[in-house]
Write a structure and sequence with these properties.
The chain is of the alpha+beta class and 220 residues long. The protein contains nine helices and nine strands. It has one domain (2-218). It has helices at 2-16, 32-35, 79-84, 97-106, 123-134, 149-170, 182-195, 197-203, 215-218, and strands spanning 26-27, 43-49, 56-61, 66-72, 86-87, 89-95, 107-115, 141-142, 204-208.
């Protein structure tokens, strides 16, 4: 019985993490800046598919368009390679209106972040974080149990939102990722949210659709 269940589990992950993807998706690498012009981001959405294995990704919303950023293993990668660590395919896809409507039907919204103040986060800032993850010796690999789609989507949600708040509080350059050490950002955000809630929430709005991911954004 145990062998049968393990075999079924292997087949499940073999099929589910290698589903065909949108062929218009572009790999996020050092050349991605040449293939996309920069633009501000109005909303950031963490989404989860309803069907197992409940793949997670983020949606960037601009004034007119939606873009999907996600992590998957290469198509056809076997289970052991996914378990041990294989090449991660981090991609961005511009979603046509009809396709965006299909995505909404098969997914659940987990977190919505609205950037109300200027300067808003921009696409090149997002690419900067994606490439930083991609160049990390460990995080650059897709692993089924650690550096997977959940890690990638939630880490980007945290980094983009936290960076936006640090720029607002410290007036640091938008693309200066090293302007303040982590503990300093934590203390400043805590101070701002405790003493100036009206001011902070005039900058940003965070809507949580499910408590199981609350910790990634409420405590920076």
């Amino acid at each position: 019985m145990l062998v049968t269940r393990l075999s079924s589990l292997v087949r499940f992950f073999e099929e589910s993490t290698s589903r065909s993807r949108d062929r218009s998706a572009l790999l996020i690498d050092d050349n991605i800046y040449k293939r996309y012009s920069n633009f501000p981001i109005r909303e950031l959405i963490l989404m989860k598919e309803r069907d197992l294995p409940k793949h997670e990704f983020i949606i960037l919303r601009t004034k007119d368009d939606h873009y999907c950023i996600e992590r998957r293993p290469p198509e056809g990668t076997d289970f052991n390679s996914k378990l041990d660590g294989c090449t991660a395919e981090d991609t961005i896809t511009r979603l046509e209106r009809n396709y965006w409507n299909k995505v909404r039907k098969r997914t659940a919204w987990k977190i919505l972040v609205l950037f109300r103040a200027d300067p808003k986060p921009d696409l090149y800032t997002v690419f900067g974080f994606c490439n930083a993850i991609r160049k990390d010796p460990d995080a650059k690999k897709y692993t089924l149990l650690q550096f997977n789609c959940y890690f990638f989507a939630r880490t980007l949600m945290l980094l983009i939102t936290r960076h936006f708040l640090s720029c607002r509080i410290h007036k640091s350059p938008r693309n200066n990722f090293d302007s303040l050490p982590g503990p300093g950002i934590d203390a400043s955000v805590d101070k701002a949210t405790n003493k100036m809630p009206d001011r902070v929430f005039s900058w940003i709005g965070i809507i949580l659709f499910n408590a199981d991911v609350r910790m990634i954004l409420l405590k920076f």
